[in-house]
Amino acid sequence: MTPRRARLSRRIFTAALILTTVGLFVATGMLYVAQDRQRQLLATSIRTSGWVAYQAQLEYVKTSATLDLGRESLPEDIVDRLSLRLELLYSRIGALYGSQDGKALPGIEAYVGELRPYEATISGFLARLEQPLPPDFAAKRMLSSWRAELAPLGETLQKILERSVVYNEAVYARERELAGGVTMMPLLLMFLSGSGLIALLRLQAQRDRDRLDDVLAARRAQAVVESNFRAAIESMPSVIVIFDPVVQRVSFVNKHAAELIDPSPHHPAWQRLISAALDSGKEVPGQSAVAVNLAFSRPDGLISSLRGSFYDVTWEGRTQRLLALADVTKIRDAELQVMQAAKLATLGEMATAIAHEANQPLAVIRMAVTNAKRLYENGEVGEALNAKLTRISDQVERVKRITDQVRRYGRMGSSIQEPFVLKEAIGLAISFVAEQYRAAGLRLDIDVDLPLDLNVVGEQTMFEQVIVNLLVNARDACESRQSNLGDPIVTVRTVLEGNNVAIQVEDNAGGINPAVMNRLFEPFATTKPAGKGTGLGLSVSRNIVRDMNGDIIAQNVGSGARFTVRLPVAMARMSVEEAA
């Protein structure tokens, strides 16, 4: 054979070998794909059809066990447990013949007529469980009858499951036949596949290294962010406390918080601060934060007024809560001074009325003393003299009540909030301005129908100042009203609204100018003429009400204006009502 023919023969052989290898590779791949597809279909058929039958049988066994438990001991949660089991059993029965997986079961159509009536039976059981159970013995009898009604269902499900097992065994046998006939791949194909696998593994390893580098970089960036966050809250001029909301254990405090209580997060005062903040928290509409406003007794004996908010934060890899507070003690003291000035101004306005009210009992005392002296000089020392002395004593008590009201109203308020009887506080405020109303010829209609044990939390003297401010404003509005609006009248009423109570002060003085309504509660905003009123009464009143976790609104109604103070009822009162 010549070299040329030999080279040609080698080329032909090489080409044939290549074509044979490629054909073998393609044929092996096609055969492998076809057999793998058949095995997948068989495996899917085994898993889905057999699993549907097994689930139905399992739910029947669980339901039967729950019924047996109920008719034996009838535990308290039997209704919830039995409802859950019946609902699951109902869904499994429907899946047997209604789902794609169930339809793959051999001969399932023959059992549809037996299965459907049990769906109606189980629906009836569920409807009966929505009603209260009968007494113990009758309930057990009822559960026993249910158990008997479902017994044939178990036999039917068992037959379906057995047929599924037989069918699955046949499918497994067919799968083994297919697995035994798999064509061995050529060595070249194995080599190529192995080379491709090695390349794939190397590529995957490189990707894993890149991902690991990204994770480490992200962790380093997170550590930097947490470090910056810690430095930021450490330098903030506010009280910052981070704590676990579940166990209420402090995780971090900044230096301003440490100055307020103690650097150690284990100091018992921290638990007291967290509890007080949680109790005084109030959700802010439209925001995720929870507003906090409280007066806190520090370990050194001082009382600080604190205002701030709660925020959920991720700290040290888990969700915790950040409490940010501002120490507004100085601002609070300034508000108390403003309120005291407003109270003294009100006292100045009422000085004439107070003097007139005090002069009446003094005049009676003077007349009684003159009469008592005359009776004594005439030797009449019996019941007539005793009656004069009793009258003197009564008038002295009346003067004492007047001076007590003035002294109480002029007392400086404090920052300590505690429960007080709301009806009594409203009555004291009304009694303080009642003489003014009488002197001005104004009618005061009072409808305060509140339980004597209904309390709210706050500083009682400051709350009385709010009611007095509203009544004085209503009086001034009535004095400047137009004469065609009828007789002036101011109404004070209370309305219980669930866990809140509303105190309404309403007049018929013509209402508030809409142009002033939007800024009515701003400092120095007033509708009174120049030289009368400071414009601080409503602004201070709003701050007092907000400190009590309440709100105050103004609106024009009918022929006048209505101011509504809405406050939450103290928790002690709420718990009594809930228990009732």
Average pLDDT confidence is 75
What is the CA-atom radius of gyration, in angstroms? 44 Å
H/E element order: HHHHHHEEHHEEEEHHHEHEEHEEHHEEH
Largest sheet: 6 strands, antiparallel
The tally of domains stands at 5
Strand adjacency order, main sheet: 2-1-6-5-4-3
Number of helices: 16
What is the beta-strand fraction? 15-25%
Q: How is the CATH topology of the largest domain named? A: Four Helix Bundle (Hemerythrin (Met), subunit A)
Task: Report helical residue fraction.
Answer: 55-70%
Helix-strand makeup class: alpha+beta
Number of strands: 13
Can you tell me about this structure?
The protein is of the alpha+beta class. It has five domains: 12-185, Up-down Bundle (Four Helix Bundle (Hemerythrin (Met), subunit A)), CATH 1.20.120; 186-231; 236-327, 2-Layer Sandwich (Beta-Lactamase); 330-414; 416-580, 2-Layer Sandwich (Heat Shock Protein 90). It has 16 helices and 13 strands. It has helices spanning 3-72, 78-98, 100-103, 112-129, 136-180, 187-235, 255-260, 268-280, 329-349, 351-377, 383-410, 422-440, 460-479, 514-517, 537-547, 571-579, and strands spanning 239-244, 249-253, 282-283, 290-297, 303-315, 318-327, 418-421, 443-447, 455-458, 489-497, 500-507, 551-557, 560-568. A six-stranded antiparallel beta sheet has the order 2-1-6-5-4-3, with helices on both faces. Strands 8-10-11-13-12 form a five-stranded mixed beta sheet. A hairpin with a 4-residue loop joins strand 1 (239-244) and strand 2. Helix 2 packs antiparallel against helix 4. The relative contact order is 0.05. The model is unreliable at 182-186 and 573-580 (pLDDT under 50).
